[in-house]
Records
---
Amino acid sequence: MKLLTPTVLTYLKVLILVATVPAIVGFVIVFAERRLMGFMQVRLGPNRVGPKGTLQGVADLLKLVTKEDLTPGQAEKAVFFLSPVLAVIPALTALSVIPFGPPVKVGKVSMPLWVAADINIGLLFILAITSIGVYGIILGGWSSNNKYSLLGGLRSAAQLVSYDVPMGLALVSLLLMTLSLSMVEIVQRQQATHLWFVFPGLLAFFIYFVSGVAETNRNPFDLPEAESELVSGFNTEYSGVKFAFFFLGEYTGMIIISCVAVTVFFGGWLPPFPNVPAFDFLGVIPPFVWFLAKVGFFIFCYIWFRTTFPRYRFDQLMALGWKWMIPISLANILIVALAILWTPGRTDGLVTLSWIFGGFFVLMFLLAKLRQKLARRDRLAAAPPSAQV
Amino acid sequence: MNDEPISQAEKAAAIGTAERARSAGEAPTLFDVQEMELNFGPQHPSTHGVLRLVLKVDGEKILEAKPDIGYLHRGTEKLFETETYPMGIPHTDRMDYVAAATNNHAFCLTIEKLLGVEVPRRAQLIRVILDELQRLSSHLVWLGTSGLDLGAVTPFWYAFREREQILDFFEEYCGARLTLNCMRIGGLPFDLTPGWIERLLEFVDDVPARIDDYEQLLTDNRIWKNRTVGIGVISAEECVEYGLTGPILRGSGVEWDLRRAQPYECYEELDFAIPTRVNGDTYDRYIVRVQEMRQTVRIIRQCLDRLEEGEIRGKVARVIKPPAQEVYASIESPKGELGFYCVSNGTNRPYRMHCRPPSFINLQALPRLAKGHLVSDLVALIGTIDIVLGEVDR
């Protein structure tokens, strides 16, 4: 037992994390993404490599690793080499504070075995470290010395900086409820208040997740890559392992956004209704599995968005961020603060807020549906009756 | 936004900044130069072939777009002169290669006009069916690819699923899927195979529901509307001045369709609507094309109803030697007015064959449409014109 000092434990945990996450990214998410997209787009997706195509990730990885690693002649060599590293290291580092499960009681001491580093500024750490990743993209785009890559890099600079703001503001409104930045304590507090924070923080959650999609350069905000406009944008000139690093950075980014969403809004490792005795049987499934299942759902949402939406235009993306998301998230902070002040020390205000938000969103959804129906009716009315098929 | 044209003063200011940097003895870096020249294509995924655009951009704003064409030039018009009249038909396949049937049709129609041949009724109806199937498939390709340009990947797969079925019909009819060579001077090469009509009916019954699927994904989609409404607005007058035809003209509010305006084959007895919209932007052109797809279904159904047994070839001599004269005949291809102008000199080869390709003439409007928009809009605009480079370059 002497061997497992906290330091050694931490090293072990980091090792496991760094070894497994790229594997999960490569094998599970890429395969799931390609296969799911295939089903959504009436085609099969990869189904040749290994049983049912499950080894496609290995094949892709092998292909990338064995590809020739090209550096354009006019590129800024050092920066060109450094930027893929800058894109992937912060993303992997941010994983260290994600709690995949509850603290484990060893004897009398409670040990945070499911998190690599349970630091008390966990959330702040994630925000800080993930925004370093943008340098990888900007510098990668600039150092390639390619006009399309430069445009992609500049786009991502503006995009990532402006979507960091609403994302941070959305999380600020959550901090009013969690009263802690530690990822473990945030989950424990959701257990203590008998409330997943997604309900009083519904608005914050939407802002957070949309910003998160924008932060990771995924559809419909994939402007820095924009296959059909910028021909892959910032990573056009990258090949082989360097490209794989950008790829890994993007997908790890997706995992982090999903993990934070699960931890902060969806009760982390907690099963649904953790304090209702009738639902105790859900506790049979280990917390770790609950956490991964929830993360999986958000990854699925990412894939779902990708097959559903066209791409925003750059100025529209900026308008959405600055003119809508930031004012709304500021107003949201005020609303949540008022709800907390209304019943200090108790959560009644937050519960009421949950109902208000829920009703509001249902109403908005119905209104949107109605508007769509009316628009369709107008279109049909505009066409001559003989033209209707 | 961005609809205001770039004034000369703005442009001069942009160039001035670069000049100042140069005269100060510093080598201008990419950041000093306000105006950047960007090569868009010929190897670019969104130019729909080998179109090269030389762009002058300020940031992402387009100051000037100059199409550079000719990468696919094969001298088709000259080739017509070197071969006999029937030998010209396969060359037309390779012009607008996503709509070979309409090309064949326009070519055959011109020679028939030259000879004064009457096409039998059954052949006329089958020609219209093939044309309309081709229109549907061409619009499907357009829908898929222009959606793809704007980042909507899924409609592409849906559209190509249906197109695949249409190509199966062509394959069953004439053995080819893309370069069909499916018409002959005076009629058709083959009669329909047994069961073809029933299968086609089954397919066209399915099509409206499939079109609903695409519309579900795009028509009311906020992002799609953001990207297309108000982009590349062109007025009816300008359309006429540029000589634009097809869905672009109809999207600007002009109800001009050669199937109605100067009916050929049996179009005058068919009942169909000509969809038009008034705003003349990318969204309206999208709506017009989707509506046209719905109309093709009606036309095909009517033709199938009228189909009777009969001849499929008119009386044409084995060696075609038309009298010396000049004729022009045109049809409404999926992209606009496709016409051939033929000068014959009494031999078995045309003296001169000129083509009026809709893609080429519609492409003229691109610099006008693109000015002042962003690079992202440019891909939407190339998509909305619906060009096929095989036809532009010939």
---
Amino acid sequence: MSLALRIIPRLDIKGPNLVKGVHLEGLRVLGKPESFAKFYYEQGADELFYQDVVASLYGRNSLQDIVSKMAKEIFIPLTVGGGIRSIDDISCILRAGADKVAINTSAIKDPELISLASDAFGASTIVVGIEAIKQPNGDYIAFTDNGRNSTNKEAISWAKEVEQLGAGEIILTCVDQEGSGKGFDLDLIKKVIDSVSIPVVAHGGAGNMQHVLDLTSKISVSGVAISSLFHYDYILHNRCIDGYEEGNIDFLKSNRILSNIESASIAKLKSFLLRNNSLVRKI
Amino acid sequence: MKSPYKIAIIDYQMSNMFSIKNALNALGFESEITSSRSKILSCDGAILPGVGSFPEAMKHIKSLNLDESINGFINTGKPFMGICLGYQLLFEKSEEVENTYGLGIMSGEVKKIPKKNKETKVPHVGWNNVKRNTLLNGVQNIGPLKAFNDDDYFYFVHSYYVHPGNDNDIYM
């Protein structure tokens, strides 16, 4: 048995658009999520992670349409998060073609939702998202609503709690690192992994391929969720800004990428990791 | 390429049935998501999908009388495939959530994956290889999995595994 490290493009969705922020904020429109997703599937992504970044803020869930469209041509597992509040929401999103669901805000407001969902759909279908922000005293606090609202949950004990409640997986976002291209917060990721026995996917901070290797060569993460690195690579190859009327498209028009992100394709990252003895699934 | 065969995707109202339908479409198979006994039996093949917990699934299957339809279909000798939980349901019982009887079509039971050490993560999630069971003489090269190699990857997402009751039922 040799379980491969999962390379998971993360697509943040706002309305019909793929967006990307820094520290989960200041969202820029990058394009149509469908086109990015198809490209990533063909490039050898191991899973896709879709997050509706404003769903819990506005109490809506617009991902369902996108998910059912996507599931027709993409045959890798889809995890979908954002605005999932009930067993019915989970049923709907699974019926639309998702394979797993990710819950954050509702899990904190109503931890029993995790147990109910786990008993109904099986632990392995239920992913809990933890968005952690480092405090001046060094503690990590779990935030909700895409890093906007603080809670009274300390991130590492919350990770243990969600495992006890029946979560099958954790996707851990280091909000301080997210979108910054500064590298992963190895300290936080290691603390969470050491405190639970369910798989942990790390998200937030990859600015280049070496950052990913720095993480995977030292810490046994089950997967890495990556946005900027892949999104900017896609844009460099498939620039298309026509037809966008909603959201901030100045960035797309500006024809530049963030200077601290060295974009890379999934295929290139996988070859790099394989050359450096990190086991990934070859295509 | 269009296949002449039609596949029933058995609907017990809790699975990722549309993933299966989309995959069959892409492979050129006509398919129907259904819980009707006559529709299931009229198809050339049937798939029992599975996302969910064992007790919930059995509850749904019984309330829709699907246990009888599944048995009926398998008795026709036409190809039948259980995927993930849909495969586990074919066995006698499972310890997921609480001890629950399954369809009992195959001998064996479903158990929680034991944690061998700190590195073993349960659920088992991700792409992994499948190794052929070299202790099984002569049967490795028959059955639906004969086309796969030892280094091919399959996606896993589960906390439970099947402990078969009868070695002769194992094809790989």
---
Amino acid sequence: MRVAGIDIGSRYIKFVLAEEGQIIVAEKRETGHDPLNTCRDLIDRTAPASPERIVATGYGRYLMEVHGDIPTITEIKAVARGAKAVFSSCRTVVDIGGQDTKVISLDDKGMVSGFEMNDRCAAGTGRFLEIMARTLGYSIEEFGVSCESREDKMTNAIKINSMCTVFAESEVVGLIAKGIPRDEVAAAIHDSIIGRVMSLIRRVGANDDIIFAGGCARNACLASLLSERLQKPVHISETPEMLAALGAALYAAS
Amino acid sequence: MAKDYTQMWSSIGLNLKGHDGLLTVLTEAYKGIYLSQKNRPKGMDYFDFVISEVHGLRIEEIFEAKKSGKKVIGTFCVYVPEELVLAVDGVCIGLCAGADVGADEAEKYVPRNTCALIKAFLGFKLAGLCPYVELTDLIVGETTCDGKKKAYEIFGEITNKVYVMELPHKKGVDGRSMWRNEIKRFADKLEELTGNKITPEKLLESSRIVNAKRKALQRLSALRAADPSPISGLDALLINQVSFYDDPIRFTVKTNELCDELEARIKAGAGVAAKGSPRVLISGSPMAIPNWKLHAIVEGSGATVVGEESCVGERNFRTLLDENFSSVEQGIDKLSERSLTVDCACFTPNTERLDNIVEMTKRLKAQGVIHYALQFCTPYMMEAFKAKKTVDAIGVPFLRIETDYSMEDMGQLTTRVGAFLEMMQTRANA
């Protein structure tokens, strides 16, 4: 059976078309101002190999439920399923998405047994990273590379303390004004994000194996900091941002 | 509303333009959240009516009561004994504090990071939107949390009618004797304000009225243990909210009538959801009217809220007043003893609350507990950690939420609650 999962996130819509567990299409587009149309287009383009069943997830999932009569699951359940499919030994998922960060623990069958999510504000999320990259004049792709090789990135004397994106930005502006090199500031920003994630991890616990999911898992500096702080290896799939869409597709099949 | 109250609102000094705006928003919210529910009991018609007249008929009643010489006492807390207010023929009203109203005005007096409930009671007054506060002759504060304590100083400067009761924070011998004295002082204050003497007969009569109200609420709570629940959590929350400002005798009659209907529903196996639907207990900070946010999210996600371990909920009616007294002094002893059975997080230690969470979870057959703390409500935010440990120990899923009255985190909360319900169901099926 051909099935599809669609993950309507705050920044990107991710679409996975699968058949008998094999991924046929995996596509990502900006969410923009008309996500419903983007979703329709992603689905329509699969014709004539259209999915027989679709499950939607992510922030915009209700759009699909209301306008497309498509069943929905939360991105927490979806990303857990996707991570388990790619890494069968997965027991913990750290997912840093556009507007929130989640740490999910899985039981030995792969079912969600607990989770923590950041409270309301955007600090410690992908959106925060984007804003900070822009403040320092980096593209989002080069941001993680800029400081990944810094050996002092964990022991860096510079700290970003603010819990709020707006205040953190002014903290960063202050550091730049003091003449601190921007890669050093970049390292501090990455470290502050991982600091926030670690407090969520401490509440849920981190059982092996740990999977790093969401678009931010592509950021090499975040990945290495997370692994160093945990003192454990962290596994990242080739397309970490697609795991929730994959999980939704797998639910559509079952 | 059935008639035009503009004249009355204007005479009590409301900001008419802002007030019209508030009523429009409230009416729309009520339509969207309440009137759209399916399988509502017929007995909710009365409460729908009460809400539609929240600033109309009820205000007119109180206005008339004042004209006949009665005094209106505004309160914010279940520790303040309603029995004494009724014993001096006063009208007791829980004041408006459940909407994001007048926050800009409130932030001229209190920090931005003050809990939403405190900001709201200041905001309602400062923006001239609460007819109840305008009609009060005395506003009774209490030293529960630090935020309220300091806010009452400011509220006193603004209104000139605040009286603060000193609530102890430990339930030892000294705390009990202090609170007993505070209740006595409050009784004296009420006698002085109204010129009415509290007699044993009056106090007994008022105790019966308030106990009858508590019994009706206990009855409603017990009926929610049925599967399926005969009433939605939203409707039950509303009834609890209305209990703070409706006429207590009429409220009791109407709630009991509703309970008769709910009993018939249970017999017929009818309810608001399918049998076996997920059941959630909500525990934590009070939800003042019209704060329906979390219930709306939980029930909108397909679960039923079966209980509120909250001041607007079980904490308000769990224990009855012992009516076995023959003098006012004895009555005051009983009032003091009863109120100190209330398990507010401002007390230390507060282990009774943990026991009560477990007791309610079992009695109401909740399959999950959502701990609700208003942001910056430190006592409940702190107790959430102990509550989690306690609920974990009985193998029931637990979700901790901190939020306020704004709608900006609706998406995030919907995801968290949704994932929590998925987790609950997975466990139930396992």
---
Amino acid sequence: MRIDGIFIAAQGSRRQPATLFIDRSGQQDACLQLVLGDDAPPITVQISAVSPPIAGADMRITLGGQGVFILRDDHLPRALTPFLPPSRWYSAGVWLAVVERLNWRYMAIVLALIIAMAAGIRVALPMLATQIAAALPDRWLVAAGDTSLAQLDNLLLEPSQLPVAKQREITGQFNAILAQLPPDKRRIRLHFRQSADIGPNAFALPGRHIIVLDELVEFIGADSDALTAVLAHEAGHVIERHSARMITEATLIAVVAALIFGADESLIEEMGSMGASLMLAEQSRGFELEADRVSADVLTKMGKDPRHLATFFNRVEQACGAACDGAGFFASHPSFATRRQQILDGTQR
Amino acid sequence: MPHNDSQNITESDPAKLPNRFQPLTFSGTAGDYFKIHFVNLFLSIITIGLYVPWARVRHRRFFYSNTRILGDGIDYLARGIDLLKGWLIAMAVLISYNILPMIDNEYAVFQLGYTGALILLAPWAINKSLQFNARNLVWRDVRFKWDGTYFGVAIYLFLGPLIGLLSFGLLLPIFSRLMRHYIAKHYSFGTTRFTIETSLADFYKAALAAVGVFIGVVMVVAIPVALYLFFTGNGEQGLTSVFAHSQGTIITLIFGGQLLFIGLIMAVTTYYRAVTRNLMVTGLALGDDIRFRSDISAVRLVVITLQNAVLSILSLSLLWPWAQVRKYRYMVDNTWVRPNGDLDHFIDQQQANSSALGDALSEAGGIEISI
């Protein structure tokens, strides 16, 4: 049996055609012999290492101490197997090369498994994030919320211009909401701010802060039940720890992506961050619905109509037209229609 | 499968090689890499990332071994186990960097210090990575060698480009030329050094063309997108309002704008890199007489890069392996070497492996230097 290739002597680039012969003439085990060129006398050689095969590449066979025999093929001839040094890494490499060269039908199975695992991670991450967020000590959330509030005050928010009497009235309304919450969840604080950039809105920070903007109070006007509904919605965000869940999930996604992909090509990173945004936006829409349910619950407990929030949505929609309802895959909030539907479904039950 | 295309060069007497430029060839196929890539991905997911070092080795070996210079592939000798330790440390750094600030505000300060430490560490990691990879690259049983230093890397690979950017690109050609020179001069093949000669005027010409594209791009697309992002306040993390203050369609538009922006930046940088790579490779010499040539068309490479990006996104990254092979093959096919006689006289006196920690750290930082 002869195997043609190229021999390169150790530590130099000199290459020459060479042949490996498997000599079975002796009475004992067969031995491996190297012949340089066509007519040099055969040298008995031993294989000290072989790089695991990889598609398209030459096989690199190290002949202990003497040099390297390059075989122009991406498989090792079976005849050489008895001469290989025992190496678990090499066997694993061979196994890998076999898997990497499975036909397309089997590759389709590998692809399907990848998609299944990705789907598994996709489902498991929000659940895991919720578990972790629930276990976070209050102290941490409060600290995070305090920092956010300070930063927002620096960057975006102005002090409220509402008359003190109006602020008191709203605080009174807010305390009535807190009274409906479980006793350990009543430490939420309401802050009045103003921001022309953000416009009529209210929002919750992690920990214990809810901020209502003058613009929202003006927009709502005399309809105090609508304000109650909105504040209860924000309280829902706080008690359900939505911010913490969101941040935890974002972190988990970043960590899992780093583990699995490393920091690979920047394109994959970009796509990863798009995917993460989609996941987080979907999660965010879920949180909004959850907070809407809290709002409806609180209103019911206070003896009010739980549909005030839905009425409020109608007014927002009328004020800014259909464009306001642009729900989409990247949107942080569900469409008003979806949210109204949930509230109405809740009341009919 | 034997590679017949390279047979006539390689199997003939090397001393009779004609004294003219020969193209490098690539013997891998997209189909082969597709399978390697998805087996890598599968094993990485199922081992929660533990397989990544081995995946990296398979990936690199596929591209290096199939890159044939005068018919012979470049062997990559690093093993997954060599990369694993560094990889674990890099992951610990990355994870603690991401998680600590979530735990307590006090760690926000800590993260700042961490960032500083990582910046100081980066040149070391890059330097070690170049060293590690050079030593593990072998052509005809002669290893490559990198002998850059921490300060050299810090100055030419980090500080220089930074100053170049801060000078609004005015000094960028000077620094990118210095960087390419630094890289070329500190590589050797066995005991033979690489040398390089380029003209600064050519770098300025390349930059002028790229800057022209860049300015046009910024005027038309980037500024409106950036302004929009600024005024709509994308930074609402941890803030949950009662209804969205920017509408879904607009958010989708912003994402579209971001994508467009990334694409255009990609186009400009690819263009500039392609031209300066041509300058570098063409100015490169190994020893006294071995010359190289690169005649990549910058426009063609930009088109390939953008097509690749679009196809990869549209196919949810399914076509990514194909795209990568296509781009790599284009670059290899347009790189040439003029051996000038036989290549039998190179000598290698290096010891085997060095630490792979730097390699893993710079990989984790997403920085990779390749010629």
